[in-house]
Amino acid sequence: MTSEPTTATPTDVTITTDAGAMPAHRWLPPGGQGPGIVLLQEIFGVSAYVRRRAADLAALGYVVVAPEVFWRLGVTTPVEGEDALTRGMGLVQQLDWPAAVGDATAAVEWLRDRDEVTAGVGAVGFCFGGGLGFNVAAHLEAEGGPALDALVSYYGSALPGLHENLTVSAPSLHHFGLADSFIDTDTVRRIEGSLVAQPATVFETYAGADHAFDNDDMPWHHPAASALAWATTTEFLREHLPTA
After folding, report:
1. Where in the numbering of this chain does the Dienelactone hydrolase domain appear (predicted)?
2. Quick check: helix, strand or coil at residue 183?
3. Which of 30, 162, 165, 168 sits most deeply, having the most CB atoms within 10 A of its CB?
4. Mean pLDDT to the nearest integer, 3-28
């Protein structure tokens, strides 16, 4: 087994769903095996930023898979360009949400079946993916199957419509900026009130940080909040989804 890092070039894979083969991308950790993480995209798809975060997680010792959640809409490449925000939001509006939850759940199950995944499976999601990950965690628990071992959600954009109706008992960490242009502070505080009443939930807020503050390709990037949130994320994952 090689000791050289294997995160630079992901492998394209497919995941079986009820509608066919969903494209996805897999990163292996330096040792070639470890716990699994499903990485759930923003509205811009599996972008260069998402790929960098996948490589970061793989470098920490995780087997990472990032599914192309927009695949049912015929979109399997990043949404880029000056109108990327408009097009990305349009894709989310067209998306069949229950189907997306099912597809992301299939990615969790796919990881659990992989020989290289030697421990539990968690999920990390950003924006659109943060809310999707929360719904997947709740869905797995409602179905009575194995729960996620850990969930990390960054400014989950669907949480305003989910937090009062779904319960997640798995260890979960939520990050929100308090200067979010899309989710106002009152809504953030209502989400916080709901989620901290659930078991094993950590809720972190960041003064002055906008939406997508972790994405260093976006104008909303907040370097200090990003660094602090990532440090908190890695510590949380080490506790609940240890690599050794």
Report:
1. 29-240
2. coil
3. 168
4. 84
CA–CA gap between residue 67 and residue 58 (Å, rounded): 15
Domains of the chain, first to last: 11-240 (3.40.50.1820)
Query: DSSP string spanning 110-131?
Result: HHHT-TTEEEEEEEEEETHHHH
**What HEC string does 29-83 produce?**
CCCCCEEEEEEECECCECCHHHHHHHHHHHHCCCEEEEECHHHHHCCCCCCCCCC
- pLDDT confidence of 8, banded at 50, 70, 90? low
Residue with tokens 């660094």: 227
CA distance 193 to 171: 16
Q: SS3 breakdown of the chain: % helix, strand, coil, rounded to 5? A: 35, 25, 40
Is 3 a residue whose pLDDT tops 80? no
CB atoms within 10 A of CB 144: 7
pLDDT tens sequence across 141-174: 999 989 999 999 999 999 999 999 999 999 999 9
Q: Rounded to an integer, what distance in angstroms lies between the CA atom of residue 211 and that of residue 100?
A: 22
The DSSP H or E segment spanning 226 is: helix 223-240
Which residue's entry shows tokens 């109706």? 165
Report field, pTM of the whole predicted structure over 0.90 = yes
Of 91, 96, 98, 99, the residue nearest 127 (C-alpha): 91
